[in-house]
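Batch manifest line 116
LIGAND: zinc ion
JOB: complex structure
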Amino acid sequence: MNDFLAELGLEKVVPEKKIKVGNSWEKRVSQARNTSILDICERLGIALSERKPDEFYGLCPFHDDEVANLHVEPEKAKSGLWYCFTCKRGGLPLQLYMDVRKKTFPEAVQEFSNGK
Ligand SMILES: [Zn+2]
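JOB STATUS: finished
ARTIFACT:
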């Protein structure tokens, strides 16, 4: 196979180097992903009330919401889940922050990891 590539002059364009991802970046990503949905809501100024154990409701930040359609379950998944019954948006905690503040994933990671 290598001879075949060499014959075609391709051996130089098939690098075997692995892309290095810094440990610190991976650590930051996992720190950010572990940020609880409750912390994210607090940071976004979304007030929550607990209706059942581990089930919270708040006003959805994506539209005029008067009856607290944002449903938050901090015990679901690793760091909680959120879902709006009106606009059907939902996901992992960091996604809520990214969507509300219009941040990219790397920006959100920077903000929620220790290594600022
Ligand atoms: Zn909504």
